[in-house]
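Researcher: I'd like a structural prediction for the single chain below. Treat it as a standalone chain; there are no partners to consider.
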Amino acid sequence: MLLGYRGVAKTTILVAWAVHEQRLQVEDYGHSDLHTLFGSAGKQLADTITRFAKRLITEVPFYQCLMPSGDQLSSGVQFDVGPKAPSKDPSFKSAGIFGATTGTRAQRLYLDDVEEPGTAGTVGMRDKLRSRVMGISDLLPPEGGQLVVAGTPHVEDTIYNWLRSRGEWDVRIYPARYPDEERAEILGDTLAPILRQDLADDPSLAGKPTDPGRFDEQALLVRESKSTRAHFARQYLLDTTLGDKEDHPIRLNDLIVADIHPEVAPARMIWGTANKIEDIPIWGLTGDRFNGPVEVATKPEMLEYTGKIMAVDPSGRGKDETSWCVSMILNATIFVPDFGGYLSGFEDKTLRSIAESAAQWGVNAIVVETNFGDGMFEQLLKPHLRAIGYPCQVISKRSFGKKEERICDTLEPLITQHRMVIDTNALRRDAAAREGMGEEAAMQYRLAYQLSRITRKRGSLLHDDRIEVLSIAAGHWVEHMAQDAASMMEDEESRAMDDLVRNWRPEGGQPRKQPTWTDNYIPNNMR
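Model: Treating it as a single chain, here is the predicted structure.
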């Protein structure tokens, strides 16, 4: 994988190397049996790449020995080289990344700029693109070959980061500026060796242009001034983390992850980054992580929760889950000991499992989102609660407004202020493999994935059931916290008025020396 800034000539390098490999084959064997497939975001761009390869062969004398003969393929989109071994596949061919390639075989697959807004603008498009990039290696012959992906990130959740994270690729990254020490450490061995060596020889190069002959400092400043910071970081510094922070409001890094007791919790739990959790898979964006609480006392005081609820977001049969979430509150901190989801809709086993989870955690009420089914789910759930001997209160709640904005508005301030604690084992269950479902599909259903990928744009998530039910639970406590705060303010105002009336005296007068029966009595109309 070759990641280079916009304008570094990735396409030129790929095409020149592909043509040169054909020339080397002719030198060694007298003919070439290499077959090269150029892929790009669209067929038109891929055809342009193939035509460029043919122009090199036609116009550069050193490569003119590769020109096709009269009876060979010689169109702009697929052609043979002159001394070619017999084969049904052309020496050079072009295809869009989602184009038809059935029956094609090639020892060299070069994918150039397959990620662009038209192919990776939504989560569904990115999933489709990931699958296609991973599946295109099937076009390599049984004896093997080479797959090269070259590109520049266009979106925050770029497929290039995802491919890097798999550890299956040799990666070379060429940013337009030398990275600083922190960024260089993140890139590690993926930073181009020539740039790593430059920084090792002269650390003061950090922040300076890597190729002043192509883009000097002034040229980079002009480009930076004409775009947003996140766009410039993606296209020229190959850094998507700035866009992640701007467009994705929730970070797993801001959660507190700890083992949660069903009855009591520490009176105060402090967030920090000193206690990184390593044994839970991270489905967040680049650089994200889970953190345990920071130890600030030898043994914090343990208090009982002041409330417990279960939130449920019903769904019918299909690809959406009927999701549920247990939440408890203490000192304005929300604790989430358990959550999950079922693809079985309203089946009895789903209803019974939800009822049993409510009893297991001893919730005081079940809050059901009623936008789906118009209250039918609550009526189906109540018999199961009675059957297990736990007929707790069921509360209906209707949600309004754009879903993504509502979820972000509810969860972002709580998580950013480190007011949410999620159970360690619950997150491990969330990360586990799902029977009968591939890894790519299962990832979309995980709460951690949904938390880190949601934006305020409609359709930012393919599945949002678990994050939505978490926002329902959090929203319930936010409303209660607001009511409690208003009541406390009213009580304080009432006490202040009582004191004012009780201690009132005429201007210049003396306070009463003997208490009277009115001292502790303030008529309502005086309040």
